[in-house]
Structure to design on (440 residues):
């Protein structure tokens, strides 16, 4: 039996519905049953993180929250492909802290050297772009999709599918989903089967990496 | 209980001693108990892979071996940081194939953006270098260490420790061990405790990535 780790999952969108709040934590636990998750979200940010201003606001809330709960956990996941607060927390906390962005970018590099990025911003999130470096072939966002909530509509989902097809035409080896809202709508499997290329899910990736980091501390 | 996967571990040095042959597979299974390993090695290559000629020779042997055994496994690990044969096999086989090089490079990117590479060749292995891109700050090899066997001597080990200390002086965020012989001698933990920065082990990383890829196929 693999060692279990207590993981705090911080959602960067305000969620008052308990089921929605728990969703990423539940996925993480399904992927890696040894990760026992507790979910949190930041207050007063109903549209999540989708531009510089919302990023900056979220960062301060995330850092404060993570610091206040760290003593209870073996690791913290910031469940956002923008990785708000991750670099600050990595330096300041004693436990592993991961974000979806660097996690999905680093994992995607095992699928090839030409990575396409599909997110909700015109440019790839900063840590996704810097982690991929010159393996980032193109970053795209679906038309009409500007926040994580837009992904929840039929129109939003259709736009994601169309944009993924366009990205495939660029000859990428894999498509990196650069918004954890894509995990919320469970679209990676659908796209992968439709396009027949690897489509890398950010919540799966953050689960893989926090498990890898927690285990590494105890394994070595 | 996590799903179990049957993993072939291909050693790229000829090993007639059963215990030595099994060592990486045993480590992989200790890190991830759901990975059930069977070890193989290539014939007539007692000094492993350490230059262009030995790389080329090994690649053909590895590709032939992997093709002949693939039907028995869920995934294949080429336990060498040079990743010989990995790119060919990725395209030709239906199951996941990973090498230690891209695995350790991709995992290291979760530790920071300034990575130092410590291997047995003057330059970083090709896939390690390309995966790291501009995050590769410096690659070094210990003086007098030219093959994986040189790591097994006291002098070789001392040279690794000294070179790791010099690499740390370059201000790297983490040290990537770019030879699986470093895993054989179990030096990551020792270096990490001595230098107090993350030291990333290649056999741990290949275990993490093959588990991540096998699980991804079944999870999605």
């Amino acid at each position: 039996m693999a060692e279990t780790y207590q993981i705090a999952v911080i959602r960067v969108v305000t969620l008052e519905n308990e089921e929605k709040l728990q969703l990423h934590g539940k996925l993480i636990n399904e992927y890696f049953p040894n990760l026992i998750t507790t979910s949190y979200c930041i207050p007063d940010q109903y549209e999540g993180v989708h531009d510089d201003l919302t990023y900056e606001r979220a960062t301060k809330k995330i850092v404060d929250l993570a610091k206040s709960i760290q003593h209870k956990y073996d690791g913290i996941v910031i469940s956002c492909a923008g990785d708000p607060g991750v670099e600050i927390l990595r330096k300041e906390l004693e436990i592993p802290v991961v974000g979806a962005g660097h996690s999905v970018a680093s994992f995607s590099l095992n699928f090839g050297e030409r990575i396409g990025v599909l997110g909700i911003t015109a440019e790839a999130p900063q840590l996704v772009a810097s982690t991929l470096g010159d393996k980032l072939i193109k970053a795209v966002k679906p038309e009409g999709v500007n926040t994580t909530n837009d992904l929840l509509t039929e129109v939003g989902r259709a736009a994601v599918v169309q944009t993924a097809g366009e990205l495939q035409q660029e000859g990428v080896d894999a498509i990196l989903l650069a918004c954890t809202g894509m995990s919320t709508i469970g679209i990676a499997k659908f796209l992968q089967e439709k396009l027949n290329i690897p489509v890398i899910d950010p919540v799966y990736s953050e689960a893989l990496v926090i498990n890898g980091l927690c285990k590494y501390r105890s394994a070595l």
Notes: Chain B has nine helices and eight strands. The longest helix of chain B spans residues 52-69.
